[in-house]
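Hey all, quick one. A colleague (J.T.) asked me to put the adenosine-5'-triphosphate job into the tracker so the inputs and the structure tokens live in one place instead of scattered across chat threads. No bug as far as I know, just bookkeeping. Sequence used:
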Amino acid sequence: MSTVTNTEKHPHGNAGKLKGKTPGKTGERFVYQDDEIIEKPFNWAQLTRLFAYMKPYTKQLLPLVILMMVLGTLTKLTVPYLTSMAIDKAIAPKEGPTSITLLYTITAVVLVLYIIQWLASTYRIKYTNIIGQRVIYDLRSDLFKHIQKLSFNFFDKRPAGSVLVRVTNDVNSLQELFTSGVVNLMIDCVQLVGIVVILLMINWKLGLAVVLTVPVMFVISTKLRVRIRRAWQDVRMKNSRINSHLNESIQGIRVTQAYTQEQENIQFFDTMNMESKKSWDRASMLNQGFGPLIEITGGFGTLILFWFGAYLIQQGELTVGLLVAFSSYVGSFWEPINRLGQMYNQLLVAMASSERIFEFIDEKPSIDDKPDALPLPKIKGDIKLKDVVFEYEKGRQALKGINLDADAGQTIALVGHTGSGKSTIINLLSRFYDISSGKITIDGYDIRDVQLDTLRSQIGIVLQDTFIFSGTIRDNIRFGRLDATDEEIEAVARAVNAHEFIEKLPGGYDTEVEERGNMLSMGQRQLLSFARALLADPRILILDEATASIDTETELKIQQALKVLLKGRTSFIVAHRLSTIRHADKIIVLDHGEIKEQGNHAQLMQQRGTYFGLIEAQFRFI
Ligand SMILES: Nc1ncnc2c1ncn2[C@@H]1O[C@H](COP(=O)(O)OP(=O)(O)OP(=O)(O)O)[C@@H](O)[C@H]1O
């Protein structure tokens, strides 16, 4: 495609999965059913697919992470045992004198172990962050690349906000899982097994008593955490609704102000904002209430430990040092258990997010190359439409059997009442949609049989409301052909009468225009889009003429520019200006998806039919 397609002409705002659009019912707007699902049951296939994103990094970074993890865990688990040695052998030995030298030696070893532990954990965090960020980068980039390829009918069905939320929120919600979750899961498992083994080795009776409380504690902690996690998820969801609304309200701020709907909008936002606040309050209440409760679940284990431990010391089966070591191990026992419960919740949330992400990634573009599609060679520009029927939705024909021939170099003007099918024809020529039946050929090639990019790169499109991207004027023209030189850009700008106004801008060609080019007038934006199309130099040009009335001087400039642009190309123009229509080689008059009349201006005026009526009406209107 030589120029960008206009999203505004195909608003995404049609209901799709929107539940309703009644103003005031905050809960109803900006709610997309599938975005609402917070958690999904465990799904191994999906989890495997998600973790496959880590694969490219398993060879270099993951071994390092595992090494750091093992090192960190080993050192961590050794310290309590050394402490017990310090107590039992150096501070209060059963037999013989206390040994300060042994105490110093143990302290020195513990110091070294702490240093190793610190280094191991620093590097482990560093490497896991690298892996996590890369995975998220890959995932987001895959998703974006894929969305770029999806066809118009995909966007017809979905509100832009919903697409936005998936690329941002859903991907972000996986961030935690990849940056810390996976590695923590491994560490916790290793640590738990290590601790259980050590506890049983020190004293199997006491070990067993403590270990038996684990499943109970695990269930309690997980169950409590589910509620907290859900409450926080609700906060996120409410925030993402605010994001969606913000997106729409900022894009539509001009309409809002024009219709003086600011108050209504503020009220609506307020309700949303309040809901987000309430949901936050709820979550933080739960956090305050349950958080400490979870923390003290570990206290039960400690109670059992001291009660039973004291008994074993009395029986001579345990030393004080070992009890201290035991208590230290038990202390670092609850940490991984709590985290595992958290991790489980995190996985359920990740399931829902990844399902939504993969749903988009799995969406096949409805318009794609056939497996045996050949490149479309350089074309002359003969276009034929034969019995073309098209339905956007099943059962509603937007075009009802169109037959039309355009010879290379001809200018075809499409005219007709609103909704008669003009834009639909131009959408079909670039294969933004596939026809329901019939055939469209270019130089004898069926457009469904050739490679899409070789087709679209030979068609230039200029739409009514030119889409200006944020960047310089030069960048915006260069969008037509990325390898164009500055001289070429200036040459096309001169050819379409745009040079003059560009020169007058504060930075000339390097003036930064904000997104959508609001600082430029409608006429200037039109001229820019002409320059863009001329630079692309396509054999076929599709033009949706702007309806906006502009001053006579600019109008004249646009007419001259149009002449330059149309020269030597086959052009289809959804024409609104009489001057454009008059100069067309062929005028196609559409009515309810059918061709009513065709011919040149003089012929059609003579017929005194629909065209005559349209022109008369336009004059009366003017
Ligand atoms: N994305 C879409 N999904 C469903 N129906 C659509 C879509 N776009 C257009 N239509 C319908 O197809 C018919 C033809 O629309 P089209 O946009 O081609 O008309 P038009 O002649 O270009 O009108 P206008 O001059 O107002 O732009 C209309 O009935 C319209 O409602």
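Adding what we noticed when we looked at it: The two ends are 35 Å apart (CA to CA). The chain is about 60% helix and 10% strand.
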